[in-house]
Amino acid sequence: MIRLNDIIDKVTSYSDIANDDLDSIKKAYVYSAKVHSGQKRVSGEPYLSHPLEVSSILANMKLDVPSIVTGLLHDTIEDTLATREEIERIFGNEIAFLVDATTKISLLPYVSDVEKQAESFRKLILATAEDIRVVLIKLADRLHNMRTLEYLTEERRRRIAIETMEIYAPLAHRLGMNWISVELEDLAFKFSKPSEYERISKNVSAKKKDWEKYTAEIVSLITAKMEEFEICGDVSWRFKHLYGIYSKMKKGNISLSNIYDILGFRIVTATENECYQVLGAVHSLWKPIPGTIKDYIALPKANNYQSIHTAVIGPFGEQMEIQIRTEKMHRIAEYGVAAHWRYKQGNSLENGNDKIYSNLRHLVELKDIKDSTEYIEAIKGELILDVVYVYTPNADLLEFPVGSTPVDFAYSIHTDIGNHCSQAFVNHKLVPLNYKLKTGDMVEVMTSRNRVPNRQWLDFVVTSKAKNRIRSWLRKEENCKAEQIGEAITQRKLAAKGFNLRHLREKKRFEESLAKLQFSEVNDFYRAVGFGNASVNDLLKVMHPRKFAEVAEKSKRIKSIINRISKDESKDAVLVKKYDNILIKFAKCCNPVPGERIIGFITRGRGITVHVYNCPKLLEVDPERRIDVAWNDDYSGRIPISLSVRCENRKGMLSELTSAVSGLNVDIVSADISKDEIGQGDAKFEVAVENIKQLEKLVESLKNLGGVISVERLTCTS
Ligand code: MN
Hints:
About 50% of the residues lie in helices and about 15% in strands. By secondary structure, it is α+β, with helices and mostly antiparallel strands. Helix 6 packs antiparallel against helix 7. Manganese (II) ion binds near residues 50, 74, 75 and 141.
């Protein structure tokens, strides 16, 4: 177990600490030891080892004394009987804030894992906005937890490893802290894909010895050339980190058998000028490979990373990658925001005009996304670091995540431009809106008042800003549609019961009934009906409890509607050869629709029932009694049909379905969606169609809707 004195030694090595500081570190140690006493980590070690290690990592980051103290105390509120008040009384407000901010939200009852994850992360980011040290302490905590992950159960190991890979490693990267992000990635890789990790790890360590001669020779060749050019600098080499190798292999960019792919050389100089001189020296030794020179000194990455990258054909015809940077750039590449935050006034994000501070401010801006899954997705999107640089027509340089499109570009300029962007030009040529921007593109976007966002845009936009704005537009539109549909359904259902919606609305009882159902506005009710979250029957029950208390169950209702309309309308729909004015009924078993091939069956004393030609029921009856029937082409009535649609159970699904239905000019008699045990939606529609063509078209267009799994026509036998 690491000792307190080791930590104190580290801290004194980089900062002058006063006696007061020393006292508070010791006090925190004693306090933490006291409240954690008796607790053990899953590894069997005393719990205190964890806060000590976290503090030691914070000392490696060269953070200030309050951060070191918080490292020692960070789990006290969460895991012991200590309270924020007590910590504030003993250690003061600053420490109490930091400890509280790094305490997970674990007390929320009845919420799912993703909600807990989202809320904890929201809290972390908001506290980071006030004080950037919060995120650094959290990363140190996560790093030590990852280093000791092997002691947890496999299920928890995997979950934490995935969260680390998806959020914490990218977060460290976004903050420019390369060493932490690399270690987090490798640990997360190890625990989420153990066999792949093992394979690459063995392979790389086996190669290390074999290649010492080669690397030593390259290093000496570069060093000699630099001496010849009279440049000072330090030449070193390293293998890429294991997860980096794995992800490049997966993309097919490199192979493990090619050693040059996993090896890199680095030259560190004193001045920026020397970096360019070194580049010249290296290129005079070996030919550069066209297209591989990247000047991140002139164009730093979004996390402040600076370096020159080049790849050359080495002495044995091999491809060699070389990074060139100054000492300062190297420190910033490894320590990122931790390398320089201390020199700023205050710790709040407001005060930094640095790129990294603006990265964090982007994360803070996402706080208003209510849906937990959407929030986590947006955070992940915002953490993507690979970027392209494009120009506006005014030659302003803008930065976007790789894969961004003109729509992302449009939203980054203004929400209105995004919402109405109609055409995009890249380097003066027309491109589709899903074109993937490349570094150096000059992008121009045209708008048109008539163009509005559509759901397909969500499939290709990358930035969280574009995603959010498109979603909120669609949500508004969906609500509006749901209201219209809900009103139509309400009207129709009430009419079926003999009520007139317009007259009802004038009565006070109508409003009172809505209020009883927790709707303050009639539009809220319509919207709920449109989304399938409320039903007109509920309203009727409240308005006329005696009359509608016992509403028939759903299936009975469907059948009764089919019966009712069938009886009324069948007479003119079908022509029976040779007979006139005969009683005709549609068979309930197959419920034929105009245009379908049909056949009649002469019942005993109940007229003719009309079946679909291949109705299985018909096989059971006496062939003698069959009679040819035909649809009446002049008939223009509508036939009721029940459809069952299996679909994703998500918000807005019903309104998408219903708007697809009404878009085809099909009347909706009723619509309902229910969730089944495997979480899918089961939407039941009663619609009135003109003919089989219309029905087929309807089924086809429902099937083509995103989220729809299957569409089935219901008959009494099915
Ligand atoms: Mn902890």
